[in-house]
Amino acid sequence: MEAIQQFLIPFLDLNLLFLVAAGTFGGIILGAIPGLSVTLCIALILSLTYSWELLDALALMLGVYFGGVFGGSRASILINMPGGPSNVATSFDGYPLAQKGEARMALTLSTIYSFVGGIIGVIVLATLAPLVASVAINFGQRDYLLLALLGLLLVGSLSKGATAKGIFAAGAGILVGLVGMDTIGGGARFTFGSLELMSGVNFIVALLGLFGMSEILFQLRTLNQKGVASFLKKTVFPPLRFILKFLPISLRVSIIGVFVGALPGAGGEIAALLGYDHAKQTVKKPNRKFGEGAYEGVIAPEAANSAAIGGALIPLLTLGIPGDAVTAIFIGALFIHGLQPGPLLMEQSGDLFWVMVGSSVLANVFLLIFGLLVVSIFIKIVTVPKQVLLPIIAVITVIGSYSINNSITDVYWMLGFGIIGFIMKINKFPVAPLVLGIILGPLIDTSFRRAYMGSDGFGDFLFGFVNTPITLILTIVFIFTMLGQTNIFTTIKGKLKKG
Amino acid sequence: MKIKSSKTTALLFILIISLLSACGSNSSADNTGNNYPEKDIDGIIMWGEGGATDIIGRTLAPIVEKEIGSSLVMQNRAGAAGAIATQYVYDQAADGYTLLFGAENPNLYQVLDISERSYQEDFVPVSVIANSFAGIIVKEDSPYQTLEDLVNHAAENPNDLIFGTTGEGGLPNVVLAMLHNEFGTEFRTVPYDGEGPVTTALLGGEIDATTVTISAAQDYVESGDFRMLAVINDEEIEALPDVPAITDIYPEIDKYLPWGPFQAVFAHKDTPEDVLAKLTESFEVAIDTSDFRTTLENLGMEYLNISGQEAIDYIEQNRSTSAWMLYEAGETDISPEEFGIPQPE
Amino acid sequence: MQTLKAMAPGLTMIIVGLVFLSQTFVMERASLFDPAGGSFLPALITIVMIITGVIVIIQDQVKKKAKTSMMETTAEENLENEAQHADGAEDIQMTWKQYAFIFIYFVLTILYVLSISILPFSVATCLFLIISMIYLRGVSWKTNILVSIGSVIVFYLVFTRLFHIIFP
Known about the structure:
The structure holds three protein chains of three kinds. In chain A, 74% of the residues lie in helices and 1% in strands. By secondary structure, chain A is an all-alpha fold. Chain A has a two-stranded antiparallel ribbon with strand order 1-2. Chain A is globular, with a radius of gyration of 22 Å. Chain C has two domains: 2-86; 96-162, no CATH class. In chain C, α1 packs antiparallel against α2 (40-72) and α4 (96-116) packs antiparallel against α5 (121-136). The longest helix of chain C has 33 residues, at 40-72. Classes of the chains: A mainly alpha, B alpha/beta, C mainly alpha.
């Protein structure tokens, strides 16, 4: 009973209600600007709300968190420039959809299913938090390695036929991801003696260059062709039956999203990639091929990354361990307001848990309302002539890459990635595997090496892959997915038929 | 030919814009002496959002702003264990408008060959805000009940136990060197990205023992998940009265103390004296406010608030202990002597 | 000459792989043959990259042969269309004029980034936007000026006022 009362606090307290709404709205808008990360927004709020009541500050932060992760998909769909790392996978099918005149459909569907994913995340948080946390905490280095490799298998489908080039790009991406000071050994890797490179290549900078800048240059090629606006489909709101069709797949990827989000070493970006991968593996008859504008290709990553937020709050609230960079700031907020985030948090301030659950539900409701309301405003972006839009995007990529670390060097990196991405595009090298490599590279590197360091020689290292139940399951999933991706099955089938 | 006719209009607009921006920014003010501060001060945090340095910097900033009468704009420039931020602040003008918010890490840049910068040669402390203590922890189901159990096992069975570290120059790294030098312990080490991940690894049973700041472990110790075998100090800590001080178990460690993580604010070495005095004074008052002292308490940090020679000596003691311990344990081949770091007695 | 051109993508891949591989040899505090070390995995990846380069060269050669033999046997258009389809994306044909156009715009962007350090941020951005739209043509000067100034104000409010991001 008490829990329900606490859960309802944000719904009944006008002040909290307003803060969640304002946070969600602000998050959607700011999250849509590539380069303005959700982490930065929330760090800023932390210092602004220093003297506020704790619940007020948390309400605002939660709103921005849900809104910001969702807002990033607007840019993925409309201008092929992910607003944040969690929205990379959304651009794989979202942008092709917009190019085919279905921007409105892509925006609407992703809004609805961000809401669905977000709500599922919160439900799991409210009901199964201790259980999920205990599994997540026992996730070992090998499990992270397998998870990252599972994500890397997407290379096959992102290469669009040019598999060898795709693998090359992914490899290069991993190496770019490893640039900088080796967090394990302490040595410098691929820095060519420069101190600036010691901190590594920020992958949002790489995103802005490879997706943003290179896309601008690529678009200049066809400047005088008619824009998408001329054949923009004037779809009204899709019928309910059509929307409900995607419910099963969204439920599955949301579960994946919650769990990946709950892992202390993996966040929304990996959740979205694995969600996309899962959709690609299991959806037999998409409306179009994946990568060319499948609806499921937009729904899956958005449901997964929203669900991952609820997941990230699980280790935070049950164990005091951050599930990602944003929840690390939440921990700071709790500290500042005199709470000890840790295993005793639920016992000592249980009301906090339910108020946060309530605020999260509320944030998702506002996300749905505002998300659908602003579709018509966002859609205007595609009707802007390229001559006006491209220079503005160019400025955003420059400011965005600068503002991540207040570093002008990052801007030059962004430009470098821009020209590399452009050269790759005109030579038919797939760009997406490169980004995949940059995102997954550090995780593959550290988890592989830690797993090896923790085992006694090579034999023990291999044995570890079948040693514990979680790892064994992941190993089997990985092997089957890999076999499914390569042509072995189809070749054998084909040969049998012929023979 | 539309373009040509638009040129004059364009120029006019640019003129207006530049006038507006000139009014908006304070960059026109000249930076001479006593009137400091005449524009925004940049506070550069050497760690990312959410860390102890970040939280301390961001909560202290609004209080200092009131004292000093100018905005303190906090920015994170994480990377390379703080070396990026350290280099950046060093490269800025020595006018007191760029401050470095940092922890103990730069004390080891030279011996670990991470960067040429050091607090001693390149910076002057505005204030050492607070310090904390490190504690050695194991999981509650660990067979090692006391520090002696752990040390003896690790000395008799080299490389049997896994000790989680936070990379080169981190707290566990130095503590391991301390134990190795004094008692000949040998651990297998697995490095993690910071205190959070290493705590998680201990919870998940991936490692056998580790060292973290008291504040990071306190709650788990209270909940019974972890057992703290010793705190690296010469007396018990108020927050954890049941945990023995390491000198109670091994009095020979005393020569390394005081040693532990600290949080401090620095300015460029060549900052004018009156500017430095103004900064020191403002920070001193701000850190002393009851609000901020509560924040420190919540973070499990010990209020220090020292400046001037006292602060310089404190930082030097920390550097000398850490650097020599790592060198003697063979963690680095570069002798601290090369940089004139005195050996602790 | 033709052969070299056909081999260009594969050769580039091999060269890039070799450059990275050479860097794995010079890494400090890392042993190439220790899987837990810092350079083992990167070295492994560079080797995979070099192999993919070789594969691409072979594929391109096979394709070229197939094309020439097809032309000799005066294959029907259908077949060629099919071959092209198997390549994946459509061939991207660009004229030198287009390359120059894009290159100049890229240089313009670099100049803009350089100018941020000299001019006040708002002036540099405004200038860049105005010049961009003039260069890309087709925008009336009224829209040009309005959009440029409007965007600069929005950027200023969001980035500088709200997020305290200070440009050099």
